[in-house]
Design goal:
By secondary structure, the chain is an alpha/beta fold. 21% of the residues lie in helices and 36% in strands. The protein has 3 helices and 8 strands, in the order βββαβββαββα. The strands form 2 sheets. Strands 1, 2, 3, 6, 7 and 8 form a 6-stranded mixed β-sheet that branches. The longest helix has 17 residues, at 108-124.
């Protein structure tokens, strides 16, 4: 799995109807205050081991400032929330040509299942998790706080 974690003071997502280009009223826009916006990409080889490791790491990551201005507090310590967005484009391969290849991105059925499983694993860590809609055209808005942006890639981390 590949995740781009952004520490935010706020974040939101809505879904665009691809036919009309207008906001899709069948999806209730989601909003969080302080916390993380997570862009989540899945490979076909990702499973419970990667999901569990990432959920624990993200729940305990200390990137929020303490009273001394040091990154020493977790999302739990600040009563933060998570906005999780599925994003297969994190597996774009741009080495050849000018059009990205997405062959490393997980098959949609597996990726959706793994993404929901990951969100549930975050909830099991005691986090409030709001979600975008898998496979949809979404508009994500955020105020990156810091800025703090961290990339977690289970392949590179040996998970």
């Amino acid at each position: 799995m590949r995740i781009v974690l952004q520490k935010v003071s706020e974040g939101s997502v809505d879904v665009v109807d691809e036919t009309s280009g207008e906001v899709d009223t069948t999806f209730k826009p989601q909003h969080i205050g302080i916390g993380y916006v997570l862009l989540v990409g899945v490979e076909d080889t990702d499973g419970a081991k990667q999901i569990d490791w990432l959920a624990r790491k993200i729940a305990n990551l200390r990137v929020f400032e303490d009273e001394n201005g040091k990154m020493n507090r977790s999302i739990h310590d600040v009563n933060g929330s998570v906005l999780s967005i599925s994003q297969f484009t994190l597996y774009a391969d741009v080495r050849k040509g000018n059009r990205p290849s997405f062959v490393k991105a997980g098959a949609p059925a597996h990726a959706e299942q793994a993404w929901h499983g990951f969100n549930d694993a975050l909830r099991a860590q005691g986090l409030e998790v709001k979600e975008g809609r898998f496979g949809s055209h979404m508009r994500v808005r955020l105020a990156n706080d810091g800025p703090v942006t961290i990339i977690l890639d289970t392949d590179e981390l040996g998970v």
